[in-house]
């Protein structure tokens, strides 16, 4: 069976104390640290599918970039699971590789015509490639990337509209997870958005094994307990 990976989303952490927040999460039992990279690029309007064409942003927010990943890397050996909510992920492969990112997950909506080259690039920089999809994007869109000779190694099914932490889990997305799990028994399937004690069983039963959780972990009086509860649910 696929292994459980519990990935607290550092978007819910105190960014001014990122190193100690990361250490705290690792000590609480986190397998991965989920890093939400929201950024914008000014070029490539032809690629802006499902994107706000007004300002080039993939999501209406700006968070961190490679310099912050590089700083954090100096303080932790943890697997840094980077989720790129940017319009031109290819622009960040080199710098994130150098910064010490572990996983590089790009969105299928903005990579329709260059994912093959992108996956190669990601691997050549020593990172693990993943593909993410927004709630409105059909699951079929990621099949070619999983079945390619040079495949992505994880699919991230967004369970909220990307952009912010603390939103409500969209249960309909479990159909995507179930379909994926039936088709690919060994694939890492990640869910992101609104995961916590009240939604984990649904996601785990559908077949998700990599669990991103921001507000439910950071907002809990006992984050270690929440992390262990998420893991138990995936493993049962
Ligand atoms: C949303 C991000 C998530 C976010 C999840 O765009 O991709 O990783 O931090 O936060 P919660 O768990 O609070 O929904
Ligand atoms: Zn994320």
Structure description:
With 236 residues, the protein is an alpha/beta fold. It has one domain (5-235): TIM Barrel (Alpha-Beta Barrel). Helices cover 31% and strands 18% of the residues. The chain is built from nine helices and eight strands. The chain has helices at 18-27, 66-73, 93-99, 115-124, 143-147, 174-183, 200-206, 215-218, 223-235, and strands spanning 5-8, 32-38, 79-85, 103-107, 128-133, 154-158, 188-192, 210-213. It has an eight-stranded parallel sheet. Strand 7 (188-192), helix 7 (200-206) and strand 8 (210-213) form a beta-alpha-beta unit. Helix 2 (66-73) runs parallel beside helix 3, helix 6 (174-183) runs parallel beside helix 7 and helix 7 runs parallel beside helix 9. It is globular, with a radius of gyration of 16 Å. Mean pLDDT is 93; it is low at 44-50. It binds D-xylitol-5-phosphate and zinc ion (ZN). Residues 9, 34, 36, 83, 192, 212 line the site of zinc ion (ZN). Zinc ion (ZN) is lined by residues 9, 34, 36, 83, 192, 212.
């Amino acid at each position: 069976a696929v292994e459980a990976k519990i990935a607290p989303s550092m978007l819910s952490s105190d960014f001014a104390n990122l190193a100690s927040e990361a250490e705290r999460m690792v000590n609480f039992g986190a397998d991965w640290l989920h890093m939400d990279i929201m950024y914008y690029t000014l070029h490539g309007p032809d690629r802006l599918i499902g994107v706000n064409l007004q300002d080039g942003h993939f999501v209406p927010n700006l968070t961190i970039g490679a310099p912050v990943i590089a700083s954090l890397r100096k303080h932790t050996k943890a697997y840094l699971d980077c989720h790129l909510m940017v319009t031109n992920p290819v622009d960040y492969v080199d710098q994130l590789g150098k910064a010490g990112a572990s996983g590089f997950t790009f969105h299928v909506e903005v990579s329709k015509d260059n994912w093959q080259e992108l996956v190669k690039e990601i691997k050549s920089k020593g990172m693990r490639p993943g593909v993410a999809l927004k709630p409105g994007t059909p699951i079929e869109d990621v099949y070619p990337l999983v079945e390619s000779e040079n495949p992505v190694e994880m699919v991230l099914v967004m369970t909220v509209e990307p952009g912010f932490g603390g939103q409500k889990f969209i249960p309909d997305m479990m159909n995507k997870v179930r379909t994926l799990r039936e088709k690919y028994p060994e694939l890492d399937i990640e869910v992101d958005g609104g995961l916590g004690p009240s939604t984990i069983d649904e996601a785990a039963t559908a077949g998700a094994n990599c669990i991103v959780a921001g507000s439910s972990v950071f907002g809990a009086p006992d984050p270690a307990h929440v992390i262990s509860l998420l893991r138990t649910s995936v493993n049962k």
